[in-house]
Specification:
The protein folds into three domains: about 5-175 and about 240-330, Vaccinia Virus protein VP39 (Rossmann fold, 3-Layer(aba) Sandwich); about 180-235, no CATH class; about 345-425, no CATH class. It is α/β, with parallel strands linked by helices. It is built from 18 helices and 15 strands. Helix 4 packs parallel to helix 5 and helix 15 packs across helix 18. A seven-stranded mixed beta sheet has the order 4-3-2-5-6-8-7, with helices on both faces. Strands 1, 10, 11 and 12 form a four-stranded antiparallel beta sheet that branches. Helix content is about 40%, strand content about 20%.
């Protein structure tokens, strides 16, 4: 059974790899995505991003991603490869994209940021022949725009070194119900089911955003885009090909590609919304039942119960059995309790977008990451300076030791989304 048997996606233009590459290349040349952010940040510690990435992977020795990794940003868009090269200055970074316009934007961003460790390639990730070449592959928001995402994912899996890590994000089906419906409606109105006409589709989309003909959730949703630029509207409402997934369907595809989940990837979107994979139930027995389930089964339940409010489908993957048995989240918590930490204390460098659409480094350095906003979590972070194992710290502070409480603390203190503590090797 395929993904398209299970969910109703936007696939009327789906064809061969060559056809899809041509369509996507034309779309992202017309609408280079994403637009430039207001600022780009890195820290004064050139190894900071790598250390926190390893802690995302529950590697307290910081060795899974090595000190001088080879990184591939597969489908890099307008800025992701340049930002990655900035944040991993000891890495060799390659950025690939089929849109020449996106690569030109990315090259300009790289020049502004002063990075020297980046190579940009105009190529399709469907056609590459890399074999066991990269320590770390980033592919976020890309494979779901292909006719056969599973075949694309197999290409990525083959490009990983045996111990390599793949960071993958695909659309959460419950996040895309309104947009997929809108996309197909616009294509029917524009009569572009067989061949895209982006100008016509953009005109119809803007008309519907200005005055929507009905009520309900979709009207409220499209109304948020009245002042949005063309590129943002196109990304939300005009994607030529779009697959989306549930946790269950994604895990099945990942397994068929010889990969397995390591852990959810912390990301700015979930941090902003407060979305979490670990639910809290009012009924103790229900909480115990849920907590004792395998990780991916818990994530499936969260995906189903929270629907549109569930987190992004953004995960770290690895080859099955490549490094022994995968650590469960419970085992991650056990190792967290046994580990000693110290507060992170670095400075943040910022490159600010100027009026002439260039990035310029700010002269001021700000302390980073500061302190946790939650006073109880802040107390744990401050006490970590003692160098004691986390278990001793929690005991002294009378912190609850159930799985959910410890896991929330681990995620709230030691990941790249909330990088307050780093382990002492």
């Amino acid at each position: 059974m395929t993904t398209t048997d299970l969910i109703d996606d936007n696939l009327s233009l789906a064809g061969t790899f060559e056809v899809i590459d041509q369509i996507n290349g034309g779309f992202y040349s017309r609408f280079p995505f994403p637009w430039r952010p207001a600022s780009v940040d890195c820290t004064s510690d050139p190894d900071f991003a790598r250390i926190m990435l390893n802690q995302n992977l529950v590697d307290w020795s910081h060795k899974t991603v090595p000190e001088d990794p080879s990184i591939w940003v597969a489908g890099c868009g307008t800025n992701q490869a340049a930002i990655t090269a900035l944040q991993f200055p000891h890495a060799t970074v390659r950025g690939s994209d089929i849109s020449t316009a996106s690569l030109e934007f990315c090259a300009a961003t790289a020049r502004d940021l002063g990075v020297r460790n980046l190579e940009l390639c105009n190529e399709s990730i469907n056609q590459i022949s890399y074999k066991e070449q990269f320590d770390y592959i980033i592919c976020t928001g890309v494979i779901h725009h292909n006719a056969e995402p599973e075949a694309t994912l197999k290409k990525l899996a083959g490009a990983l070194k045996p111990q390599g890590i793949l960071e993958l994000m695909v659309y959460n089906r419950y996040h895309r119900i309104l947009t997929s419906a809108f996309q197909k409606a616009v294509r029917l109105l524009a009569n572009t089911e067989a061949e895209p006409d982006y100008q016509n589709e953009l005109s119809i989309t803007r008309s519907l955003i200005t005055a929507f003909p009905g009520d309900g959730l979709i009207r409220q949703f499209v109304g948020l885009f009245k002042q949005a630029p063309d590129v943002q509207i196109a990304d939300a409402f005009m994607q030529p090909v779009e697959n989306s997934y549930t946790v269950e369907v994604l895990e099945e595809m990942v397994d068929r590609c010889g990969l397995e989940f390591i852990a959810p990837s912390p990301n700015a979107w979930d941090r902003g919304t407060g979305a979490t994979w670990n639910l809290r139930f009012a009924q103790p027995e229900l909480q115990r039942t849920y907590d004792q389930l395998p990780d991916s089964r818990r994530w499936q339940i969260t995906n189903l119960l929270l629907c549109e409010n569930s987190p992004m489908l953004w995960f770290y993957l690895r080859r099955k059995g490549s490094q022994g048995a995968r650590k469960t989240e419970q085992q991650a918590c056990d190792s967290f309790l046994a580990t000693c930490f110290r507060p992170n204390d670095v400075s943040r460098r910022s490159f600010v977008l100027t009026k002439d659409n260039r990035f310029k480094e700010s002269k001021s350095l700000l302390p980073y990451p500061g302190k946790p906003a939650n006073p109880k979590i802040r107390e744990v972070a401050e006490t970590a300076a003692s160098g004691l194992p986390m278990a001793r710290i929690l005991e002294s502070l009378h912190w609850p030791r159930d799985f959910a409480s410890v896991n929330d603390l681990r995620l709230g203190l030691t990941t790249s989304a909330r990088p307050f503590l780093r382990s002492i090797s």
